[in-house]
Specification:
about 200 residues, alpha+beta, Ribosomal Protein S5, domain 2, Alpha-Beta Plaits, 2 domains, five-stranded antiparallel sheet, four-stranded antiparallel sheet, 11 strands, Impact_N_sf, Ribosomal_Su5_D2-typ_SF, Impact
Length: about 200
């Protein structure tokens, strides 16, 4: 897989009402659990009278991790319905949170599942979903005399240069699509005067 879907930026809150209970839905782009904690803490500060701030997130591109949190609602009545929508929209590096303000009428487990699922769905409908390309980087080190050889390969294959240091001792960091990584490395490996460094 060379790409993944995620959201571009945090969404404005959406409101879903069910028998006087109010459900405010939010989406946030996240890269780690620390960001998740910060967003949830921020929502709890913003809604001090909220009974529950339930959420689900999925993080990762090739290897994905996820968590669903019911925040005091009956087991699997909030977090998992929200997570189900993350799966439906096929997005990762994304947090969906739903703030519930109780309206005095109990909804029952079935009603809660429907309400949290619907709120998450509407929130994700409002989000700007984008596709990102997964890229890997490697570094080439070479003498200045090898500059022409390196640049010829870079231009021929339209490679993306992330950074370069062109002095007597030169180096260049290049990013390529994950599926092209090995093939591109081999283009440079045939040039024996180049030194190649990867994270792998």
């Amino acid at each position: 897989m060379d790409s993944y879907r995620t959201i571009l930026k945090p969404t404005a809150p959406i409101l879903f009402k069910e028998r006087k209970s109010k459900f405010f839905g939010y989406c946030f782009p996240v890269n780690d659990e620390e960001q998740v904690k910060q967003y949830i803490a921020s929502l709890k500060n913003e809604y001090p009278t909220a009974n529950h701030v339930c959420y689900a997130w999925q993080i990762g591109t090739t290897k994905k991790t996820y968590r669903a949190n019911d925040d005091g609602e009956p087991n699997n009545s909030a977090g998992m319905p929200i997570y189900g929508q993350l799966q439906s929209y096929d997005v990762t590096n994304t947090l969906v949170a739903v703030v519930r303000i109780f309206g005095g009428t109990k909804l029952g487990v079935g009603g809660l599942i429907t309400a949290y699922k619907e709120t998450a769905k509407i929130a994700l409908e409002q989000a700007q979903i984008i596709t990102k390309i997964i890229k890997q980087q490697f570094k080439i080190e070479f003498e200045y005399a090898e500059m022409d050889v390196v640049m010829r390969i870079v231009k021929k294959h339209q490679l993306e240069i992330i950074s370069q240091d062109l002095h007597l001792k030169c180096s260049m960091v290049i990013a390529v699509k994950k599926s092209d990584f090995r093939r591109t490395l081999n283009l440079f490996k045939t040039q024996h005067k180049l030194k190649i460094k990867t994270d792998q």
